[in-house]
Amino acid sequence: MFRMLIHWLLSAIALMFVSRVVPGFFVTGLEAALIAAVVIGFLNATLGFLLKALTFPLVILTFGIFLLVVNAGMILIASHVVQGFYVYGWKPAFIGACVLAVIGLFIRAFSQE
């Protein structure tokens, strides 16, 4: 349970970092980032899973890069749901998905026991 809370907090901090780096990607505060992290996680676990299963052949053809497009779509949907979390277009969503993927790699690398 503690690890899940730490992961949630790190995901929210990653969203806040991306909002500082990517133009068109805005988070108004920690509360919005925490809620957005939950919504993005929920969307990736439900709708994202379905989309990744349906687009599997395209993922294979693009060597996995299409997964970033799916993740960008989940970020865009979350931005329409969460107050205080705004993403203006596909380009900021895609760049944000790329940056979040890299940050996620570092988080998983340093959180291994």
What would you say this structure looks like, in words?
This protein is mainly α. It has one domain (2-110). It has 6 helices and 2 strands. A two-stranded antiparallel ribbon has the order 1-2. The protein starts with a helix and ends with a helix.
List the helices and strands and how they pair.
Elements: H1 2-21, E1 25-27, H2 30-45, H3 47-54, H4 56-61, H5 66-81, E2 85-87, H6 90-110
Task: Write a brief caption for the model.
With 113 residues, the chain is mainly alpha-helical. 77% of the residues lie in helices and 5% in strands. Helix 2 (30-45) packs across helix 5, helix 3 (47-54) packs antiparallel against helix 5 and helix 5 (66-81) crosses helix 6 (90-110).
The topology string of helices and strands comes to HEHHHHEH
* Overall form: globular
Major beta-sheet overview: 2 strands, antiparallel
Strand content: 5-15%
Count of individual domains: 1
Total number of helices: 6
The largest sheet has its strands arranged as 1-2
Structural class: mainly alpha
Helical residues, percent: over 70%
